[in-house]
Amino acid sequence: MSPLEDIENLAQLQGLRVAICHYWLVTWRGGEKVLASMLKLFPNADIYTLFYSPSVCGPHLVGHQVYSSVLDRPGVRQYYQKLFPLYPMGIKSLVLQKDYDLLISSESGPAKGIANPKKVPHLCYIHTPMRYCWVDRQSYLERVPKRLRGLADREFERLKKWDLKTASAPDRYVANSQNVAERVRRFYHREASVCCPPIALDLFEGPLGWNPEGFYLSFGALTPYKNIDLLVEQFTRSGESLKIIGDGPERPRLEALAGPNIQFLGSLETSQLAQEIAGAKALLFPGDEDFGMIPLEVMARGIPVIALGKGGALETVVENKARPESSSGVFFAQPTLDDLSQALAQFEAQKHRFDPDWIRAHARNFGEDRFLTCFGNEVTSLLNR
């Protein structure tokens, strides 16, 4: 079944002239998967972004015109995360090239600040207010050389003030989770409805691939707030097998800390990724995430999740201590070795009671068709207001 089949106003949506401003296009992760789903609703949309890597993202954006900012230069693009003081200048350099019916900002950076002189209806799909300004600044500052931390902190504060000034630009906010909707309310003093990100429907097809006697798995970008160092310390001590899928700036430091029982697999092709997931006993998810698509992508294959009981995981992972067969995982309260160890022990004691079919059925509630219907309705409501 096509994820578009249940959208009553599909022809109207697909006929719109749409501009989508996505923060940057240099990796293909969760935010970009959401963008790809949006493009199914708006197949003729133009895309605006701070940085664009054609080799990484181009194959996913065939048929779409991509406009990048003045900051997007060879030899500079690779440092995109360190150029945050220049983001306002970069977003100001983006000029809408055509007359549009709808402007969508896909936001976890400064995308919502794109100029809109013709007052095109503007919907902001917000993955999170900028973490390095609002919720996680300290962990980013800890990775900055000490002599530069004061300067970096002042630049984060300056960017935060600019971000707040642009909070009134969208006509409507749609958040990826209740967690992020609460941040929008707290930081921007705006209300946001919720459309959870899309989980690809093909993940729910085929046999379930759970191995309760397999290895533990970590999967995602290796960045500071993901707390992967907690896993490395725990498993280096215990000697249990752990496989870590993903790349990022934290990888060299984490590899230096890890024991021989921990494998870093980097980024994997889809077929290899599916093979590794099928051999796992559980996914470990130790970060305080905005939403977190990866737990659901793994649960779609019937595999339980051991997650930090904060943030988006509280909206996707179900824990029922009395009836693990009606659970999709186990929580630990704080990102500490003691709490993680207790959760691992609880999981090991109950692991054979988890039901892969129940876990997959739960994850199916977040399928791409649900997102497309929800988001399409939000766009229609905005345009018809």
TrEMBL record:
List residues of the Glycosyltransferase subfamily 4-like N-terminal domain. Answer: 29-189
**Lineage: superkingdom:** Bacteria
Q: Name one GO molecular function term.
A: glycosyltransferase activity
Positions of the Glycosyl transferase family domain? 213-351
Looking up PANTHER family in the UniProt record yields: SULFOQUINOVOSYL TRANSFERASE SQD2
Report what the protein is called: Glycosyl transferase family 1 domain-containing protein
Q: From which organism does this entry originate?
A: Candidatus Lambdaproteobacteria bacterium RIFOXYD2_FULL_50_16
